[in-house]
């Protein structure tokens, strides 16, 4: 069916259709997410903790993101492909931001996402023809400031997130992720802006949801309150690998049917 574009994502909010988003980091899983019919695939910098074994997203480089964007591009045919600007690739200057975003677009992204209050960077990317997704609340690249992956915007601190959300919209963001914030605050932000809000740990009142693919598939080490495993991936895969180990050991694989 028809490819999903940035105007499609924006229009989904007006039509009251929830935007379904998931991360992917390579061609294999990008193609699976695409086949499932999700609207948007994010090459998240969560590739750092999820796949590369880093403790946080802080060490993820632009080179890492380009590598995984190229791979995911090869698998995603229909969903909108968005890539994260990693820590350090956009904060220092507007020209860094545009340069990094251009590189992600050349690697196959159709939009970029950046964390935090960087309206000048967003404006400059949009001016250059690059759609930008915002990301507010618990922004993982600032984990050292927060002292952990903690819920943000509790109580009176919520007002400043609402204010920032409005400014991201004014700067030209086409949507924004709201991560680990109280559900009521996420609803207020969603009312305060006209672009789709995409929640993760932000309740049911957002315009759409995003999850880390490996959480959805039950392939993550931990379990999180904001997530749900819709298939027990690790158990399933471990069963398969144990069977393989067994049959090689006992000599029942390969058989003549596997031989030439
Ligand atoms: O990197 C990521 O996976 C993300 C989503 C969780 C929003 O930024
Ligand atoms: Na991210």
Radius of gyration: 20 Å
The H/E string reads: HEHEHHEHEHEHHEHEEHH
CATH class of the largest domain: Alpha Beta
Helix-and-strand structural type: alpha/beta
Mean pLDDT: 97
The number of helical elements comes to: 11
Using the 3D structure, state the CATH architecture of the largest domain: Alpha-Beta Barrel
Order of strands in the sheet with most strands: 1-2-3-4-5-6-7-8
Q: Give the oligomeric state of the chains in this entry, treating copies of one chain as homo and distinct chains as hetero.
A: single chain
CATH H-level superfamily of the largest domain:
Phosphoenolpyruvate-binding domains
Sequence stretches where pLDDT stays below 50 over 5 or more residues: none
How big a fraction of the residues is strand? Answer: 5-15%
Protein described:
The protein has 260 residues and is of the alpha/beta class. The protein has 2 domains: 224 residues, Phosphoenolpyruvate-binding domains (TIM Barrel, Alpha-Beta Barrel), CATH 3.20.20.60; 29 residues, no CATH class. 42% of the residues lie in helices and 14% in strands. It is built from 11 helices and 8 strands. The mean pLDDT is 97. The site of 3-methyl-2-oxobutanoic acid (KIV) has 11 residues, from strand 6. InterPro entries: Pantoate_hydroxy_MeTrfase, Pyrv/PenolPyrv_kinase-like_dom, Pyrv_kinase-like_dom_sf. One of its GO terms (molecular function) is magnesium ion binding. Its main location: cytoplasm.
